[in-house]
Automatic annotation (TrEMBL):
Organism: Cutaneotrichosporon spelunceum
Protein name: Enoyl reductase (ER) domain-containing protein
GO cellular component: cytoplasm
Lineage: Eukaryota, Fungi, Dikarya, Basidiomycota, Agaricomycotina
Cofactor(s) the record lists: Zn(2+)
Family membership: Belongs to the zinc-containing alcohol dehydrogenase family.
Pfam family, one: ADH_N
Entry keyword annotation includes Transcription regulation: no
Lineage: superkingdom: Eukaryota
Domain Enoyl reductase (ER), residue spans: 17-358
Listed GO MF terms: alcohol dehydrogenase (NAD+) activity; zinc ion binding
Keywords, alphabetical: Metal-binding, NAD, Oxidoreductase, Zinc
UniProt xrefs under Gene3D superfamilies: Medium-chain alcohol dehydrogenases, catalytic domain, NAD(P)-binding Rossmann-like Domain
Coiled coil: none
Length: 362
């Protein structure tokens, strides 16, 4: 049994969906009742992601629905209550569960049927249609609830539900083979340090690109063989620097843009060898970037550009195996619940490295 209180901890926003939003810690946030097909979850940990900021600010053109004031889309905890219609053979109260950014997909459209369920035409996001993981008792649809392996800790699993799964799918999309070279933009960041680890686990050589010594340390710890600090090298010099680091001088096989920086997108195609792949993961504010500055470069070199939006349920199961086997690990810094607002502010301003995780039981 999980005893369910009437109110709980949460960090809801005022002015949700506008750039003026602010979040504040509360101890008296209402605990909801799960409806048909839903699970009520009691979270132990929740990741703080830069996407939370964009979702609450509404600057991606996706604003939270009316009544949704808790953002957050990555968490780990236990099932607290089954809604009507949930099969008790599938989910049990007290069972460990992870929450990913997706709340529900239709399972019946062209994209769901072709292995691209995160692009589902009817998909619903956590923190968009329902409150997200900034409340200790969120609701999720049972179809997207993720079972957590026994040997994965909650504070690892929470951020992994977003950054780990996304990083796994992005690494797969690069299509690189063991021995190939992959550039990772934002290699010291929340998604980038996971991409770097997945690449290393798959036998790829990573050239990490990021800003400053702190990010360098994270990227190198994650397994980047080389690091280029954009505060020390100009955009114009980047292509030559990357070519010099590839054994045959032709450039990288893929560039995974795990940074939400428009400049990373402008630079990525120029770092690739012919037929290279740009994997677009990081999302700058809407309308600030295009994937590749010069279409001629893309055309002449046969460059492909692939977009990755979070991860599918099947990929998440595969990705969790890397985590359970110790092949990858989130660089997690656990912060107490009371530090929620300043933590989000620091993440929103890109002033953190690795992954901040809030401990709801602190
Ligand atoms: Zn996230
Ligand atoms: Zn669909």
């Amino acid at each position: 049994m999980v005893a369910i209180p009437k109110v709980c901890r949460a960090a809801p926003a005022s002015n949700a969906g506008t750039v003026q939003y602010t979040i504040a810690c509360r101890e008296d946030y209402p605990v909801p009742e799960p409806k048909e097909g839903e699970l009520l979850v009691k979270l132990n940990f929740c990741g703080v992601c830069q996407s939370d900021h964009h979702m609450m600010a509404g600057d991606w053109g996706i604003a939270p629905a009316a009544g949704v004031d808790c953002t957050g889309h990555e968490g780990a905890g236990v099932v607290a209550k089954l809604g009507p219609g949930v099969d008790p053979a599938k989910w049990k109260v007290g069972e460990r569960v992870g929450i990913t950014p997706v709340h529900w997909t239709c399972g019946d459209c062209e994209f769901c049927n072709n292995g691209h369920e995160t692009i589902c035409l009817k998909k619903q996001y956590v923190a968009n249609v329902v409150n997200g993981t900034y409340t200790q008792y969120p609701i999720i649809h049972e179809s997207w609830a993720i079972k957590l392996p026994d040997n994965v800790a909650d504070e690892q699993a929470a951020p992994f539900m977003c950054s780990g799964g996304t990083a796994y799918t992005a690494t797969k999309a690069a299509g690189a083979k063991p021995g190939n070279t992959v550039v990772v933009f934002g290699a010291g960041g929340g998604v980038g340090h996971m991409v770097t680890q997945f690449c290393k686990a798959d036998g790829l050589t990573v050239i990490g690109i990021d800003v400053g010594e702190e990010k360098r340390a994270v990227a190198e710890h994650a397994g980047a063989a080389h690091f280029l600090d954009v505060t020390k090298i100009s955009d114009a010099d980047l292509p030559a620097a990357v070519r010099k680091l590839t054994p045959d001088g032709l450039g990288a096989h893929a560039a995974i843009v795990a940074a939400g920086n428009p400049k990373a997108y402008a630079n990525a195609p120029g770092l690739l060898r012919p037929c290279g792949v740009v994997v677009a993961v990081g999302i700058p504010a809407a309308g600030t970037a295009i994937a590749g500055a010069d279409p001629a470069l893309v055309t002449f070199a046969g460059i492909s550009i692939r977009g990755i939006l979070v991860t599918s349920r099947a990929d998440m199961v595969d990705a969790l195996r890397y985590l359970a086997d110790g092949k990858v690990k989130e660089n997690v810094q656990v912060v107490p619940f009371a530090e929620f607002p300043e933590t989000l502010a620091a993440v929103a301003a890109s002033k953190t490295s690795g992954r901040k995780v809030v401990d709801f039981n602190s």
